């Protein structure tokens, strides 16, 4: 199906496969259409229909509160073209840069799901073909029988890799959560689309790096740390990581974080309990503080924001609080705050 997009700066046209969402078809064609969550919650992919007809794949999508259907507005990440379309996007849209990791559809096999805590599972996806992605990106996953895609951030980093590593926090009653936690999934196939996401790190950045993760938001930070370690980035620049969890029972990746800790200051922020007396003995390379992760980061980072790029990920309230702090306290500019809301 042919789709014409009129953006503020220029027009694009591309072809969508049968049943393919408008956003994914455009991204697959190398056109950097606007999106954030890519899964129906944020409203960033809003477009206006000038001609043609779309089918809405998820009429209750939370992101629909940002669209006015009476004006022909719809979410590109949830709608499929039923005939040739002409759309208007009220943003500047550019082609992806040369060398960008252009997202594509593929299938992958689930490997080695393993419990990291009482409600977080790690797993790998093995692809038939090698895959490229940038540190900090995510992929969309769709097991059979579950409506829609779910976004999960890669924890590892590599170029031309066959295995991508993920973590998933269990959401009681959630479609993907119940699928992953509710059965033996090793060896099962699922559909994927990616890589996606703009909260990416490249060593050419040349700035100090502040990472703030709420819970499962640590996923993309692990990828950034892996990329930075490969380039020995923190021998030339400062690095700080703040990892917020409720209690020590919810903390994971502490071995991996300890391995990064000689070069990066790692602080685990416990929101719901005092720091246990043995925490420092057990993890001598890590710091532990009581408090919400953005407050802990604010206290520790005061006066250290020169030449800093911040990355934030996790549940939306934690991300919003951290962004507020980075804008108001740290006075970082918006281009130096990259984030993913795990909505
Ligand atoms: C950029 C990004 C990165 C993320 N990375 C991680 C991560 O690394 N680890 C992690 O644990 N979580 C991550 N999340 C959250 C994750 O995508 C899921 O929302 C969460 O795991 C709950 O999924 P669920 O299927 O269990 O819950 P559900 O409540 O079933 O679904 C949650 C999400 O799935 C989509 N969805 C639900 N129903 C439909 C439908 N009928 N049609 C279409 N879409 C539907 C929506 O986006 C909804 O918000 C990320 C989210 C985003 C946006
Ligand atoms: S990108 Fe479509 S709603 Fe978030």
Entry keywords:
globular; alpha/beta; 17% helix; six-stranded antiparallel sheet; six-stranded parallel sheet; 343 residues; binds FE2/S2 (inorganic) cluster
Give an account of the 3D structure.
The chain is α/β, with parallel strands linked by helices and 343 residues long. Helices cover 17% and strands 34% of the residues. The strands form four sheets. A six-stranded antiparallel beta sheet has the order 11-10-13-8-9-12. Strands 17-16-15-14-18-19 form a six-stranded parallel beta sheet, with helices on both faces. Helix 6 (293-301) runs parallel beside helix 7 (316-328). The longest helix is centred in the middle third of the chain and has 13 residues, at 218-230. It starts with a strand and ends with a strand. The relative contact order is 0.11. The mean pLDDT is 97. Bound molecules: flavin-adenine dinucleotide (FAD) and FE2/S2 (inorganic) cluster (FES). Flavin-adenine dinucleotide binds at residues 37, 39-41, 58, 138, 147-148, 150-153, 167-169, 171, 174-177, 197, 216, 219, 340, 342-343.
